[in-house]
Amino acid sequence: MIDDAHMKKAMQAYIDHFNRADHAAIAGLYADDATVEDPVGSPVKTGKDAIAAFYKMAVSTGARLKLAAPIRGSHGNAAAMVFEVQLNMPEGEAVIRVIDVMTFNDAGQFSSMKAYWSRSDMVVLSGPGATKS
Amino acid sequence: MIDDAHMKKAMQAYIDHFNRADHAAIAGLYADDATVEDPVGSPVKTGKDAIAAFYKMAVSTGARLKLAAPIRGSHGNAAAMVFEVQLNMPEGEAVIRVIDVMTFNDAGQFSSMKAYWSRSDMVVLSGPGATKS
Prior knowledge:
Two copies of one chain form a homodimer. By secondary structure, chain A is α+β, with helices and mostly antiparallel strands. Chain A contains three helices and seven strands; from the N terminus they run ααββαβββββ.
């Protein structure tokens, strides 16, 4: 079984690599046959090439990730974290509120990622499209 | 597919029922054939009786749940939330940092719950066992 500290370190590396727009380093955290479902309920991306292309696109938006609470481990090969995606959209400055769950293979790589967020978790903070609430 | 607003309302009801120690109301949010894995990596509890017994025990500890960020939905039949369990242990006042993921059946009931937390997510705040950090 994968060590809890290792899983949390890999989750933190994901955040840090993203915030340096280092898409290759993010993709390098994944196993060759890994899956990414972001958001949950959308088509699953499978394997190295699809995942690399996804993160190349994702970091090109200039988005930044900010943890909202400490990363959680588990008693198995899985960990979870809560964060906000901060990004500029045509509608203005926005955040998407996300929870990611990763599972790990025996080599300590991500074997799957699921990102929980819905349209109602996207909030425009300022600009012409600012969310009224 | 289950409405995002319904899922978030059910997640909030789970928190509220727990904080009233209303174990029957919590169990009532689950489908008859639902599963609970708390923490992830421990034996799965399956079905109405096992789940009802689990929550009867859980609320008897006097624990309280406090959301740490807004509940997240998804584009499918799943939602996630981050919270702290506040409880008194022999070692002192403690919190367990948890992320729960629920899936829903077509009737809008929880079909599964997974709770992500590890020993390193349990922190003793005060008393003889206070965590040094």
